[in-house]
Amino acid sequence: MKQEIKTTYSRAEVIRLLGLGVPGMILGSSLLSSCTKYPLPDSKFSGSVGIIGGGIAGLYAGYLLQLQGIPYRIYEASDRLGGRIFSEDGILDHSVEWGASIIEGENHALFNLMTSNGAQWIDSPIQDYAFVEGYWLSEEIMKDQLSMKKLDEVILGLRDYHGADMNANLYASNQGVPASTLPVWNARLGIRNGATTDIMGILGITSKIQNASSGTTQRQLRNGSLSSVILSSFQDLSIQYQTPITTVDYSNSQVVLTDSTGNFYNHDKVIVAAPISILKSQINFNPALPSNVSSAINGISMRPGMQVLLEFNQRFWETDARRLQMDGLCPNFEVIGSGGRSVVNHSLMANLYGTAFENAQAGPTPVVAALLQQLDNHFGNSIASNNLVQSKVHDWSQDQWIQGIQSYSPVGASTLRYAFVPSIEHKISWAGEATHTEGHHGTIHGAMETAARAVQQIMTEV
Ligand SMILES: Cc1cc2nc3c(=O)[nH]c(=O)nc-3n(C[C@H](O)[C@H](O)[C@H](O)COP(=O)(O)OP(=O)(O)OC[C@H]3O[C@@H](n4cnc5c(N)ncnc54)[C@H](O)[C@@H]3O)c2cc1C
């Protein structure tokens, strides 16, 4: 019997196939399988482990070690847990997520952790809206709009692209993506990955699309915050706050960590779970790291960026909108109160990452005024400027121990992450989102998977 191969896809199908923005829908309350990629053996290891960084990777590593009864200590530079998971209450009628807000897929330990902590998801299908050729297009209209159809076709083709690496915008132009949809390309493939497509390599993008195994749904909490749901699981860990590690000396049988005030901490093994931005300049290693590891640290990028919250006294976008994508200073605004998260749904979060952040910093107009101007230009009647209630900025570049959004691969850097897979001399293991090699870098669940990898390594390499 001849097998029928589907060659045309609706826009919603394209998005779903590539995991580019389908809102989370409840799949049922069944607890899906835990991460079985890194099963833990019965350990013979009896030494102690130092963990650098109290983001989700460091915390999950500590949690797994604690379960195994292995002594460990997490050294966190700041006075706060969670790193790039950072929720704040008391600003709006719901928690504000300054960092991660979306759980991608469900084939991972994070999903299980969330569901077992009673996470309640937004369950209504919510749409992206894009401003293309002078009009706001809903997903329904996009699938019949010529330029958007071409964009979808090129994005879908990324599943099969194995050619040369090149600048992602150049690739789009070569493939015939119309200039009118480049801002949407940038919002979906750039901003979503913590940067902008003008500075990203196409193979860095395709490596995520082709390798990710987490699933393609995107879930957001309807109630509560990521900090409270995730971090509450890690409260009983052994953590030393305000301890920035500046030197890792692995020249002897024990690893010696030195903090910024000169205190020493000895451990048998160490998990480094600091962001790649920090590894570039703020932590020294003795002896120097192998050249492939230092090439990875230097070659993988993580750019500064900021989130700008804008609360209005009325909503001027469609009720079901989840993201507003448009040309101008900021390619992507999240509708952060959508799907019932807010009673009023009057607030947007501008994602200024990559060169969008740099343009905002360099521009003559202060950032909030510039964003209002951009919204006025697209919605008309000075509606944004006239209805602003409050604005608040979270500038991740000012966070001394993070300094950026998500790691991404510039041209030529798409395979560098593999340098983080083996340990160094069975003493130093790597964790953190930037060290994920199978398509989950730049995510919470990816960071957790690298922690599981590091712990497995510690327990098997005795
Ligand atoms: C604005 C934004 C939006 C995002 N959106 C999403 C999303 O929707 N979905 C998603 O899955 N992911 C998203 N991410 C990415 C996600 O937040 C990260 O991939 C993940 O949280 C990274 O965890 P980590 O443990 O690797 O690093 P981090 O969270 O950065 O933790 C590293 C920790 O190390 C500490 N540290 C640094 N240097 C030192 C030192 N020298 N000594 C001791 N401690 C140190 C830091 O203070 C920090 O606590 C987003 C990120 C940002 C910033």
What can you see in these coordinates?
With 462 residues, the protein is of the alpha/beta class. The protein folds into two domains: 49-84 and 227-301 and 412-460, FAD/NAD(P)-binding domain; 124-220 and 303-398, Polyamine Oxidase, Chain A, domain 2. Helices cover 29% and strands 18% of the residues. The protein has 15 helices and 20 strands. It has helices spanning 11-18, 56-68, 109-116, 139-142, 146-157, 168-174, 182-190, 202-211, 226-231, 276-279, 291-299, 354-362, 367-379, 383-387, 444-460; strands spanning 49-52, 72-75, 87-88, 96-97, 103-104, 127-132, 135-137, 218-219, 239-240, 245-249, 255-259, 264-267, 269-272, 284-286, 305-312, 321-325, 332-335, 347-353, 388-395, 428-430. It has a seven-stranded mixed β-sheet with strand order 7-6-16-17-18-15-19. Strands 9-2-1-13-20 form a five-stranded parallel β-sheet, with helices on one face. The chain has a four-stranded mixed β-sheet with strand order 12-11-10-14, with no helix packed on it. A hairpin with a 4-residue loop joins strand 11 (255-259) and strand 12 (264-267). Helix 1 (11-18) packs parallel to helix 5 and helix 2 (56-68) runs parallel beside helix 15 (444-460). Residues 52-58, 75-78, 83-85, 99-102, 104, 244-245, 273-275, 278, 282-283, 307, 396, 401-402, 405-406, 432-433, 442-444, 447 line the site of flavin-adenine dinucleotide.
